[in-house]
Amino acid sequence: MASQLTEMLKGTLEGIVLTILTERPAYGYEITARLRDEGFVDVVEGTVYALLVRIEQRGFVDVKKVPSEKGPPRKVYSLNRNGRTQLGEFWKTWTFLSERIEHLHQKTYDEGK
After folding, report:
1. Are 65 and 74 in contact (CB under 8 A)?
2. Where in the sequence is the domain holding 93, given as residue range(s)?
3. Lowest mean pLDDT: which of 34-38, 44-48, 109-113?
């Protein structure tokens, strides 16, 4: 199940991270910790940081460097207008897919009785 979960998560992690950023701006480690709090315990920091680079390049977040008590400044990510639009598209797509999948699942379950 772990490899299947990993593959499915790859397609949804961007939307999950954008959703986390709707609550408040955050830096990479905070986002990783929040994912773990939400049960995504296998998500590693490197995956989150690579995703943050991609969503920054795609213009979905604004980035502000803030001083850190330990080491170099932290990059704090906040969701911008483009990111909110992308997040809306993500949830619309998620709703469509999850409804279709649940329909197939229920149909298969009902036929198996």
Report:
1. yes
2. 2-111
3. 109-113
